[in-house]
Amino acid sequence: MAGSDGPQIETSTVPPRVPSPLPPGEKAAVFYHKLDEVLDTVACLLRDSIEQREMCAFVCRTPPARLRELLRDGGLDLDMHPSVVLIHLDRANIGRMSEATIGEQMRELAKQARALGYSGARLILNVPEDLAAQVPSDRAWRDLDAVREELNLTVVCLYDMSLLSPEFLLRSLASYPMVIIDGVLSRNSYYLPSMGEGIADPNRDLFHLLDNIRVEQEERLSAEEERSRLARVNRELQGEVLRRKMMEFSLLQADINLRTMLDAIEDMVFMVDRELRVTNGNQTFVRYLEDAGMPTSYEGRGVYELFPGAPSSGRRIFEEIFQYGCSTIVDVSLDAAAGRVEAELRLVPIKMMERVDRIVVIARQRSANPRQMQEMWDRAGAMAMEAQDPEGSFRGTMNGCPHPVMVSSADGRVISVNRILVRSLGYSVAELNALGGPSAIMRPRRQGSEVRRASDDGRMIMPCLVSCKDGSVQAMDCYVMPFDHGEGVRQLTILHPVH
């Protein structure tokens, strides 16, 4: 660039950062090649002065009208801020400047600021070429610095490195404790407060010194960013710890609420997971364990460990509930302190995301079977005897039943049906087997509180919808009873219409 004897500074492509606020009475320097490079920095310095309610005199090279236009394009309209006064160098009478006149102007600026009610004063000076000749003595500059400190005047000097001599720039650099580099207020490692001996090596390259200041500032910024990052991580960790504690408290409160709800139920209630381990139980369940002489620490123990007398066939019922999610009532006999008690277990699935996660078991002592149920089981027992010995004393029992009846094998093959099934449903044995067996015409009925009922000897009552040959559908209760046969286990099913 014309007028520059030294190497050129590369223009940074990174947008300038906003300088830190300058405390009252501080002084700083800005070294630049083109005003465009530092226009954003100058705008920030002016905004800082406005925010601190200072009166600011900006002695500039650029014509004030043009500078106002440039600043307005950048978002700062000086017409809205009368505290900022732009003064062109031609009006500053630099040629007649001396230590005395500069000191006098500084005092006048501070006095005028106080008279107008401002909190302080700021001078931004675009240093002219002749200033070094007008004030050549280091002692004179030290005296002016003392005046600045006395007035608590904030001073920022702009140095055009394409116009000013390297010797003057080097000497000036040494007199500033702060330098604005790339828009960042940086500490100057080469600041010499006394300036009595000057810079140790006057031939050192100014650009090298400025680069060193920039590197040191970047290192400090990096360290500050790392400290900020660590502080942020620490805050996030504290927040995560608090969140986890709140979650633990919520889970604890939910567990307390669940136990309170379970304890309010008089029936014995407990929950089992997919491994058939007990996870929760109410006080009635704990009392049952105490009466049975077993430890009351039930969590994680298997249900068959806590109920040693329960038939292993019940495991299949649990597996079906976990697989299909159907509520079931099971009739069982339990050992209690008063002896063996007939009980009814209601097994209710709890789903999570369409998958059965646990089963709630509600046990209550039951009375004798209702009359209809007992009659149906008596009929089923007689018909099972006929199936075992067709020519025996129970011959004709199956055809004498007023309800549809079928006998099937363990693999689902229909072996025989009675006459009422053929008349009411329309199927023969061959037609049922062609369709795929009993499961082809029967599907579960789930309405309201209707659930299947099972007993520990394998008998079961299932609410079903039965499809007839003519396309109609009938709601029926299916009484299913397994029985031994010479050729293996058979299953007798009575279809009782629901009225």
CATH fourth-tier homologous superfamily of the largest domain = P-loop containing nucleotide triphosphate hydrolases
The percent of residues in helical segments reads: 25-40%
Give average pLDDT, whole number: 81
Count helical runs.
Answer: 14
The CATH topology of the largest domain corresponds to Rossmann fold
- Per CATH, the architecture of the largest domain is 3-Layer(aba) Sandwich
The CATH class assignment of the largest domain is Alpha Beta
Characterize the main sheet.
12 strands, mixed
Label the overall shape: rod-shaped
* Number of structural domains: 3
What Rg do the Cα atoms give?
49 Å
- Which structural class is indicated by helix and strand composition? alpha+beta
Strand percentage lies at: 25-35%
Give the low-confidence spans: 1-18, 195-200
First and last CA, distance = 106 Å
Instruction: Give a count of the beta strands, DSSP E runs of length 2 or more.
Output: 19
Descriptive tags:
499 residues, Beta-Lactamase, disordered N terminus, 3 domains, 5-stranded parallel β-sheet, 12-stranded mixed β-sheet, alpha+beta, 19 strands, Rossmann fold, rod-shaped
Can you offer a commentary on this structure?
By secondary structure, the protein is α+β, with helices and mostly antiparallel strands. It has three domains: 202 residues, Rossmann fold (3-Layer(aba) Sandwich); 101 residues, 2-Layer Sandwich (Beta-Lactamase), CATH 3.30.450; 127 residues, PAS domain (Beta-Lactamase, 2-Layer Sandwich), CATH 3.30.450. Helix content is 38%, strand content 26%. It contains 14 helices and 19 strands. The strands form three sheets. Strands 8, 9, 10, 11, 12, 13, 14, 15, 16, 17, 18 and 19 form a twelve-stranded mixed sheet that branches. It has a five-stranded parallel sheet with strand order 1-5-4-2-3, with helices on both faces. Helix 3 runs parallel beside helix 5. 25% of the residues are buried. The N terminus is likely disordered.
